[in-house]
Write a structure and sequence with these properties.
GO terms for molecular function: kinase activity. This is Ribokinase. By secondary structure, the chain is α/β, with parallel strands linked by helices. It has helices at 30-39, 57-64, 127-133, 163-166, 177-184, 189-198, 237-250, 255-270, 280-289, 296-302, and strands at residues 3-11, 13-18, 23-28, 45-52, 68-74, 78-84, 91-97, 111-118, 138-142, 148-151, 154-157, 172-176, 203-207, 213-216, 221-224. The longest helix has 16 residues, at 255-270.
């Protein structure tokens, strides 16, 4: 039985990305962006992907890039339409098709140091699935997908109904400031982080856009500044961040070093359409030479305490 450093589990999607400048059709999903990012790093990695048989070319494309992929066939692939305004933080989504939830049979005998749950919609993963997977390795979740409910073809923000049942099995959780408020009921970063930790999350990552990110390990808070960037395409930035973070954590780096690496990796990704195409050397250069977006002391002064 092989023990991977990282395993991502999630659906591959069909994506239509609409911006004020152009419309692009491509494969997507958290697992897509995460896998491309990890493939540029020296990681022992596997993806377990859910998609329709008609879309298997997307898997072959990933395999052609050297990414190991296991497949769970679904009746349909997830089909997202993402429309962005001039501000890339503002996105309107429609879901034109949904896929089947993941089942443990799709995981075969895979073991990993970290399992990253690439949820796109609230019902992609059952509570039992996460619990069973936690017996094989540490669990990482970007909560974004758990806060999306589909009604018709529209996506609505909702609280995570079963968060207390799932978060007790979660080692790493990422949330942006809007998701943080939905999950915890507070916009106070410090209170929110402590609450998430009290629910079981060991490593809380709260991303604040151009203000950087705040880490909490149950004892200490750490502020990680963002780097200056020319925003071109924000789709997949959070997935790229998580790929960088888990890569460094799996290699034994501290939360702070992992988050600095993740921030630089996301900066490179946001400056081009599509997934991350840089190298680890590019990320290291960005960490050394890029200017930070906002000074740390200014960020700390602006946060609610």
């Amino acid at each position: 039985m092989h023990n991977y450093e990282i395993c991502c589990v999630g659906h591959l999607t069909l994506d239509k990305i609409v911006t004020p400048k152009e419309t692009v059709y491509m494969s997507g999903g958290a697992s897509f962006y995460f896998s491309h990012a990890v493939s540029k790093l020296n990681s022992d990695y596997i993806l377990v992907a859910g998609l329709a048989e008609s879309e298997l070319q997307a898997v072959e494309d990933l395999r052609a890039k050297g990414i190991k992929v296991d497949v769970m066939l679904c009746k349909n692939s997830v089909y997202f339409e993402n429309t962005y305004g001039e501000n890339q933080d503002n996105r309107t989504q429609r879901v034109l098709a949904k896929a089947d939830p993941f089942v443990m049979a799709a995981m075969n005998n895979i073991q990993a140091n970290y399992f990253h749950i690439g949820a796109l919609l609230a019902d992609d993963f059952s509570n039992e699935f996460v619990e069973e997977l936690s017996k094989r390795g540490k669990i990482s979740i970007d909560c974004q997908g758990y806060l999306r409910e589909v009604r018709g073809d529209k996506v609505y923000p909702v609280d995570w109904a079963d968060k207390l049942e799932v978060l007790k099995f979660v080692d790493v959780l990422k949330a942006n400031e809007m998701e943080m408020k939905v999950l915890t009921g507070t916009s106070d970063v410090y209170k929110a982080a402590r609450l998430l930790n009290s629910w079981g999350v060991k490593e809380v990552l709260l991303t604040l856009g151009s203000m950087g990110s705040v880490l909490y390990d149950g004892e200490n808070f750490t502020m990680i500044p963002a780097f200056k960037a020319e925003v071109v395409d924000a789709t997949g930035c959070g997935d790229t961040y998580m790929a960088g973070y888990l890569y460094k954590r799996a290699k034994g780096e501290s939360m702070e070093e992992a988050a600095r690496f993740a921030a630089a990796m996301a900066t490179i990704k946001i400056e081009a359409f599509g997934p991350f195409t840089g190298t680890e050397e590019d990320v290291q250069t960005a960490m050394e030479k890029r200017e930070i977006s906002i000074p740390t002391e200014d960020i700390l002064a602006s946060l609610e305490i």
